[in-house]
Amino acid sequence: MGASVALVIVAIFAIAFAFLIIAALTRYKRCPSDKILVIYGKVGEDKSSKCVHGGAAFVWPVIQGSEWLDLSPMGIELDLKGALSKQNIRINVPASFTIGVSTEPAIMRNAAERLLGKKSPEIQELARDIIFGQLRVVVATMDIEEINADRDKFIKNVTESVGDELAKVGLKLINVNVRDITDESGYIDALGKEAAAKAINEAKVEVAQHDRSGATGSAAADRDKRIQIADADAQAIKGENDSRAAIAQSNADLSERQAEADRRSMAAKQVAEARAQQEFYAAEREAEQARAAREEARLYAEHVVPAEAEKKRMIVAAQAEAERQRERARGEADAIYSVKEAEARGLNAILEQTANGLKAIVTAAGGDADKAVQLIIANKVEQLLSTQMNAIKDLKFDKVTVWDSGNGGGSTADFIQSLYRAVPPLKDVLDSHGISLPDWVAGKPNGSAGPPAATPQGEPAQPVVPKAKQPEPPQD
């Protein structure tokens, strides 16, 4: 039994040891020469990753992970158009760039932090944006003549500017190839024509100078030859005066012909120089026209184009403001319409309820309008009387003295009645509101006011007149 347990324990340890060996072999990464091994996770203090180029490294399980960065070169084609040079002339710069992930330790760490996990098209698009911006910056710091003539300096500036920016994301500029540079204003073509005209004029001047030197040498040799012949003849006919005279005449003719030859040579030189000067002026005129066209294009770009853009912006802003005003007006109109519609519905409901109430009163009065009015007045009489009494309730009487003349016209009751008559009658108050009282309220033509009250025997009741209170005799 004990031997079996020991064998099981030994087997378990053997399996665990084999598993550890297999795990160690699978976690040991060998880095090829065209890739960078990026180890991330627990890699040390103040480090986000560890980069290995060449060799191998062990990647601990659980606490570390790894990915690869490809070092294969990537080509980027750029066709920069309308770049503004130092002379404010827009030029087109077609170029091709070759980039790749750098293997320098510091730049390689930047690549691990900013490019890990990105595909090649994504890296190319990022580099394209960086190169595009830096190429514009380099063009803006150089003249067109300098860019066109000193191509090495232009490429050097591009390499330095673009390389520094690419290094920030872990990339390295491998090669730059700038093709033919053109411009829309024709300035570069004018420079080429000016250089060609200058070279042609210089060549023509050199040809004229060589022709003049050849003619002068030939004439000098001919002159020496004839002089020698003349000397020989003079010595031969030294004693003969006629021969001397002929020789003198021959010498005079020779001098005249020499002067003529010199004159023709000088004239030919002057003609050649005049033609060369004329062609130079023509080339200079074309260059000035090109410069004028360039200045006109610059002024148009600086003043006309911004003005047109501002005009379009103001038109769009005005249209947007008008549309906002229309939308606000439509919203306010809808709100007012909703409020008025709600008020109309409420008023209609009130009128309908009032009409229904009046209809119910008329129905309760048996269809008799006078009785319906009586019911309404009976319901409101307390309010009407209260309103009428309020007209005199605030009058304050300090003392009332009544002088009775003995004929019954100066009693206290008469005074109160006359005071009450001063209050607007109930009929006038109702008439002012467009309400007509029934006949029994408004009064009969003979002046009776109020419906006849039936007595128990069926006779009209006599109106009750309050008796005036007699004043008490003064106390002694």
Task: Walk me through what this model shows.
By secondary structure, the protein is of the alpha+beta class. The chain has 4 domains: 47 residues, no CATH class; 113 residues, Band 7 domain (Tetrahydropterin Synthase, Chain A, 2-Layer Sandwich); 144 residues; 60 residues, no CATH class. 62% of the residues lie in helices and 12% in strands. Strands 6, 7, 8 and 9 form a 4-stranded antiparallel β-sheet that branches. The radius of gyration is 63 Å and the shape is flat. The C terminus is likely disordered.
Write a compact overview of the structure shown.
This protein has 476 residues and is an alpha+beta fold. Helices cover 62% and strands 12% of the residues.
Task: Give the total of beta strands.
Answer: 9
The pLDDT mean sits at 76
Instruction: Work out the helicity level.
Output: 55-70%
Q: Give the total of domains.
A: 4
- Low-confidence spans: 444-476
Biggest beta-sheet profile: 4 strands, antiparallel
> What spatial form do the alpha-carbon principal axes imply?
flat
Helix/strand/pairing category: alpha+beta
Termini gap: 152 Å
Q: How many distinct helices? A: 11
Radius of gyration equals 63 Å
Which percent range describes the beta-strand content? 5-15%
Helix and strand sequence:
HEEEEEEEHHHHEEHHHHHH
List keywords for this structure.
single chain, 476 residues, alpha+beta, Tetrahydropterin Synthase, Chain A, 4 domains, four-stranded antiparallel sheet, three-stranded antiparallel sheet, 11 helices, 9 strands, flat
SSE arrangement:
Layout: H1 2-26, E1 28-30, E2 35-41, E3 49-52, E4 56-58, E5 64-70, E6 74-84, E7 90-101, H2 105-114, H3 120-140, H4 144-149, H5 151-167, E8 171-178, E9 182-183, H6 187-236, H7 241-364, H8 369-389, H9 412-421, H10 426-432, H11 439-442
Antiparallel strand pairs: 1-4, 2-3, 2-5, 6-7, 7-8, 7-9
Helix pairs in contact: 3-5, 6-7, 7-8
